[in-house]
Specification:
Blueprint: H1 3-24, H2 29-39, H3 44-68, H4 74-95, H5 100-125, H6 134-138, E1 143-147, E2 165-169, H7 174-191, H8 196-206, H9 211-236, H10 241-261, H11 267-290
Helix pairs in contact: 1-2, 1-9, 1-10, 2-3, 2-11, 3-9, 3-10, 4-7, 4-9, 5-8, 5-11, 7-8, 8-9
Length: about 290
Amino acid sequence: MSPLAELLVITVVCVASGCLGSLLGLGGGTFIVPILTLAFGLDVRLAIGASVISVVAGSAAASPRYLDEGFANLRVAVTLEVATVSGAVGGALIAGLVSAHVLYTVFGAVLAFSAVQMLRSRREVAGVAVPEDRIANLLTLHGSVTESGGGPDRPGEPGGPGGATRRPYRVTRTATGLTMMTAAGAVSGLLGIGSGAMKVPAMDLAMRLPIKVSTATSNLMIGVTGAASAVVYLQRGDVVPALAGAVALGTVAGARLGSRLLAVVPTSTLRTIFLVVLLVISVQMLLRGLA
């Protein structure tokens, strides 16, 4: 396959990964790095360099719609972004000193841990009231989200069968969320992904945001986090312009499609897809890293 044909194939594949990344709040980098390394045989650092550029592009493409439709919580995003940016810069600086096998292994372990914790903790908090949080009250982080028919996204929230309903939600454990976001930012800088694999569980489990709010807010945040670490990758020469351009083009198209799908995809379906995707990719990357 010629280099031009390979770039065209990569662009098409990135449309799908950008769509899924936007829908799940993971950022396309979660899928792009495994695709470029496992399917196209590219060096992991070049894949990460292209991925981190696509993360910024995909976030910019999907975020306006999420904000317009009220899915993304801008106050939560701004509050948590302070922690993630700090972690992202540190992670990007460390990445140049770590071997490729370690990057693969860390990537897979992070995704597996996020999926298992999200599944187990969801069962544990069922029926438990959302604790009061002074920081969330002070910063007025609480909000509401439009949900289609069916039960509420979380036990104890108002709602019922029928058409779309605006459901209120309360934010809790903001301090825990800030700590987890620092770690998520470090993973983002280290692995060149949006670190939504950690951000979404942090907001969903620790801060108790509805899953659609978590994914949309994560998508908004990963663009800022990615931009903070992209500078380091550019200076280090890990970004190939042609490759990064092809990946970003496909990711933007996919992200716009994913932002439209979020409003119509049922919450239970979204959560199931999220968990399955994390587990599948984590196994692939762990096998590669431990080989």
